[in-house]
Amino acid sequence: MTLTQLRYVIAIADTDSMNEAARTLFIAQPSLSQAVKELEEEIGITLFRRSNRGVKMTPEGKEFLGYARQVVEQYRLMEDRYITRKNSKKRFSVSMQHYTFAVKAFVEMVKQFGMDEYEFAVHETKTYEVIEDVRNFKSEIGILYLNDFNRAVLTKLFRESDLEFCELLTCGVYVYIWKGHPLAQKEEIALEELDDYPCLSFEQGVNNSFYFAEEVLSTYAYKRLIKANDRATLLNLMVGLNAYTLCCGIICESLNGSDYCAVKLKSDEVMAIGYLKRKGAALSPLGQKYLEEIKKFRESVL
Known about the structure:
Layout: H1 3-15, H2 18-25, H3 29-43, E1 48-51, E2 54-57, H4 59-83, E3 90-96, H5 100-113, E4 118-124, H6 127-135, E5 141-146, H7 151-160, E6 163-171, E7 174-178, E8 188-189, E9 199-202, E10 225-228, H8 231-241, E11 245-247, H9 253-256, E12 260-265, E13 271-278, H10 285-301
Parallel strand pairs: 3-4, 3-5, 8-12, 9-10
Antiparallel strand pairs: 1-2, 5-13, 6-13, 7-11, 7-12
Helix pairs in contact: 1-2, 1-4, 5-10
């Protein structure tokens, strides 16, 4: 096993394509395929499933990828310090469900640290990918929620992925709508009152189990349901169709604007929003600062 082979595996995983990875690495595709095949034979596991539609990592491959990323990153840091002797930028990456407050905390952290010495990444993505990003060392922290419905399933997945969930806050469920919505002036909204309006939900891709839904009450028989991939689209649909989504009630006008509001849903449902990290791993100073910013924002709105 060589460092070059580990870099090859990472490149393929990042592009989902042997051809694209080969172009990125500036090597011939047959040479890349042969190097990966030799690595698979050496370690005794299959890292990728090949098909006419490209390559897909196996479960064993995903586990291997996490270790590979860690080894390559540590080597890069050592090389920068002892070989090239240049000051390498410190890195921090976070993956999250679509929470404006989590983005706001990221913005405040970046403002404080600046970009001269640090390299940042933020991934608003699907629930399963939040878990995978932390598991595979792509992100140090993942932000998501648990409730009575999904807790057992997701906690089992966390445990199998060697991750731990740390609670940040608990809250009720709110209806997120634009201020021109017919129900926007109500103090509380019953779920039945929403039947005539489209419910918006974030698309979860192939991992579309109810347990991975970003919105609570995912098993409710909605009469009108629209799925979308990004927050900007959902906001446009709220205005254009008087649509709504269910959220934690913590909104950020500085990022989404002042045209939207959160109205309490008549429900006893409780959400526990928290962060995922690798089990037993200490958070970096950047990770600690990011969580401090989330707690500041939480205290200012709750």
